[in-house]
Amino acid sequence: MPDQSLPEARTPEAAATRPPAPEGLTRRRLLGTAGATGLVLGAAGAAAGYAAAPAQATPLSSIGAGEVMFHVKHQPGITQGLQARGHLVAFDLAAGAGRKEAAALLRRWSETARRLMAGEAAPHDDTDIARDAGPSSLTITFGFGNSFFARTGLEKERPVALDPLPDFSSDHLDKARSNGDLWVQIGADDALVAFHALRAIQKDAGSAAKVRWQMNGFNRTPGATAHPMTARNLMGQMDGTRNPKPAEADFDRRIFVPASGTKDPAWMANGSYAVVRRIRMLLDDWEKLSLTAQERVVGRRKADGAPLSGGDETTEMDLEKTDAAGDLVVPLNAHARITRPDQNGGAAMLRRPFSYHDGIDADGTPDAGLLFVCWQADPLRGFVTVQRKLDRGDALSKYIRHETSGLFAVPGGAARGEYVGQALLEG
Known about the structure:
Layout lengths: L26 H4 L17 H4 L10 H4 L19 E9 L5 H19 L21 E7 H6 L30 E7 L2 H15 L3 E10 L32 H5 L16 E10 L1 H4 L4 H8 L36 H4 L11 E2 L2 E7 L5 E11 L3 H12 L8 E11 L11 H4 L2
Antiparallel strand pairs: 1-3, 1-4, 2-3, 2-9, 5-8, 5-9, 6-8, 7-8
Helix pairs in contact: 4-6
């Protein structure tokens, strides 16, 4: 789990407001969203079941009113802050389904995502699960796996960056829950809104694709702390202090594929590559360690995320500082030392994970850990570079196990009137 994390604060892209549209009966209108929420009404055409509901006088809370735009330069769900609830799901195209069926599916999915992210009902057969809620910062993101291109006759358009990831020493991978033709990431600040989106996406797949695997995750709810702060993982550590920030001059170069001057195919312009790993935390073993031992494994103080060399969370780590005995304060195998970009040729990735808990095994061991999702313009320079370094001696590797893996090409955002992946499927 490289030492990078996304702050919970929303980015300017996430805060973008939908432009005015003709009045219609959307879920938000029926809930009486007031002008104080800063939202503008979405497009008309909600389902009749929504129209039948009486209007409410009380405005939505700030969490429910949060809205992320669908038609943006980069797909939603990449630069936005961590969301309270998430679902990751991979699909395989059905037997006999090819490029035509895939294009129709991505068109359906894109329209469903646009409507749900605007707080509207699904285009058809809405389940009413999210009837009483606002958009709740819902994001839906779509990607293509390596196998998708052979299934659709688009092998010549497959990016070199989608070559399979190498094997790592911490891998104990379940192939049935890895990879996939298509990948969808769903995130929201309300669990029912997120599940509503998951159900709609699954129903939209119809006979064109079937679920290969699906995983559920969570994060701290925005507003649960006195002020925005780096999230904690299930080990109790602040997870990812050094995540790259959108305000940094080289952020786009590191995270997104440029529109030109790259080895990537043209349809990947403004897109990114997502590495997805289900990382089980061996919590029983971890929790046997003393606080001091845990901090030396990570290289940071548990209380505030500050480096063991001193300062606060944002203080630059002093890798050469020694204690009275002459030993390095930050051990050579500390996770935070190994994952620093300046220790990996500048390699960087934008981490946007979810924690997960899938119950307790018969022996009492919790099946819990991290749904690791990271974004980068080049996975070989990003994830692979750092993970190879971790393979050579990360102190944390004793307490984690990588159980599933996937790599997906995530194209840029869809322009108005278009669907995600249109340049690939109709180019």
